[in-house]
User: Fold these one by one.
Assistant:
Number 1:
Amino acid sequence: MVASDADLYRGHILSWLLTEKGERIMRPRYGLKDYLFTAVPDLDVITAEMTAGLTEYIPECQFTLQGTINDLGETVITVFWSYLGEDQLALNVTF
C-alpha cells in the first residue's frame, strides 16, 4: 500500500506535536512547548502558539485548533486540519 500525501502530512503533524521544543538540536524551535506543569490561564494562548508552529513548519496544510479541559483537569487540544481543501481526521493532544 502506498501512503497518500495526506498520510505523510498527518505524520509530520504528529511528529511536530510529539516533539518537545529544544529536542531537535538543529531545529530548536521545532515542536510543542511542554505544558505539562504549566498553569493554563487561557486555552486561546496555547491554541494560537500551536497553530503558529504547525503553520510555520507545515505550510501546505490549514489548521484550526480547539481547546477544552476534561473532567480529569487535563487540557485537550483538538487539531482540525485540511490538505488541498479536503478535511482530514482530527487529532487530539492531551496534557
Note: The two ends are 33 Å apart (CA to CA).
Number 2:
Amino acid sequence: MPSADDLFRRTAEAAAETPVAPAPEPAAEVEAEAAPKKPSGRVRHDEKMTVYMTSDELLDIEHARLGLRRSHGLAVDRGRLVREAVAMVLADFEAHGDDSALVRRLTEE
C-alpha cells in the first residue's frame, strides 16, 4: 500500500525536470486546421449534451447500431454512432457550406 508521501508528493520538482517541447511552426498549425476533423471515438468524454428525439428517431439509431453489428461486426454504442454521424455532417458542412446536406435539410423545413 502506498504511503501518504507517495500519494501527495510534490509535482513541481517533476515539472522542472521535464523538457519543454519547442513550439510548432506556423505552417504546421495551418496544415492541422485544414485536415479534416475526426470524431473522438472510444475515449472518456468530459462534456455532455442532452438531445431530445422522438421514439422513431431513437429506434432508427438502434436499428443502425444493430445493423452495423450484424452486417459489419462493429459493436458500437449509440453515443459513438451519434458522434460519428455529427462529425460526418459537420465535415460536409465545412467542406460544402451552402451546398451541404445540412443546409439543404434545414432549409426544407
Note: The helical segments are 4-7, 12-17, 26-34, 55-72, 78-96, 101-108.
Number 3:
Amino acid sequence: MLARTPAPPSPSQPGPADLVAYAAALPAVASAVGAELRDFAAERLKAQGERIRAWSSIRSPLDFIDIELRFAAETLGAYADEAMHLQEVARTAAEVVAPSSRG
C-alpha cells in the first residue's frame, strides 16, 4: 500500500507567519475602523436632523412620503458607500502594520 504524503500548503492557505501578522494587525485595523465608524455615525446623526427639519415643510401626505423615500434612498446609498470604504480602511491599516509577503 502506498503511503500518502501530506499535500504542500496551497498559497491561499494562511501559514503560521500569516496568522501572527494578522493578529499583530488587528489592533490597528480595529482602531482605524472604529474612527471611521464614529465619523459615519456623526454623519448619520446630521442626516437624521436634516430629515426631522424637513418634516416642518410637509404640507400633504405625499410630501411626507417623498421626504421619507428620499431619506431611505440616501441612507441605503450612504451605508453601501461606507461598507466599501470600511473595507478599504481595514485593508490599508492591515497592510501598513503587516505588509503582504505574497506579492
Note: DSSP finds two helices and no strands in the chain.
